[in-house]
Amino acid sequence: MLFRFAADLIVIVHLAFVVFVVAGGLLALRWHRAAYIHIPAALWGAWIEFTGWICPLTPLENHLRRLAGEAGYTGGFIQHYIVGVVYPAGLTTAIQVTLGTIVVAVNGVVYWMYFTRRRKA
Question: Residue 87 contacts by C-beta under 8 Å, 6 or more apart in sequence?
C-alpha cells in the first residue's frame, strides 16, 4: 500500500513538473526569481523530448509499482499518461520533437516578454 501511494505521488510530482516546464515561465513574469528554477527545468524537459531519453522519475515510479505488486510500464511518462489521451496512435519521434518544440516556443515567447519588461523597468 505504501509503495503504491509513493508511486502515485511520483505521478503527481511528475505531472506538476511537466506543467511547470510548459507554463512555469508565466510565473517568472510575476515573480522574477522563478526564472532561476524554471529555465533549467524547461531546458531539461526540452532535452528529454529532443533526445528521447526517459526522465528518471519514470523508472522510479515503475520500481515502486513493482514493489507494490503492480506491473510497471514501458516507455516514458508522457507516452504512458499524456500521449495516450492526446495522441491515441502512440508516441513517435516526430511527436516528441513537436512536444519539445512547443516547450521551447512557449517559453521563448514568455521569456521574450520577461526580458522586455525588465529592460523597460
Answer: 95
What whole-number distance in Å separates Cα of residue 39 and Cα of residue 53? 19
List for the chain the helix, strand, coil content (%; round to 5). Answer: 80, 0, 20
- Region of 24 (left: φ > 0; alpha: ψ -120 to 50; beta: rest) is alpha
> What is the percentage of the chain residues whose pLDDT exceeds 70?
83
User: Amino acid letter at 85?
Assistant: V
| Single pTM value for the model | 0.70
DSSP designation for 84: H
Cell triple for 64: 515502486
Q: Whole-angstrom Cα distance, residue 66 to residue 72?
A: 6
CB-CB contact of 48 with 55 (8 Å) = yes
The set of cell numbers assigned to 110 is 514568455
pLDDT at 41 over 90: yes
* Dist CA 95 CA 27 (whole Å): 27
- Between CA 9 and CA 64, with CA 17 as vertex, the angle to 5 degrees is 30
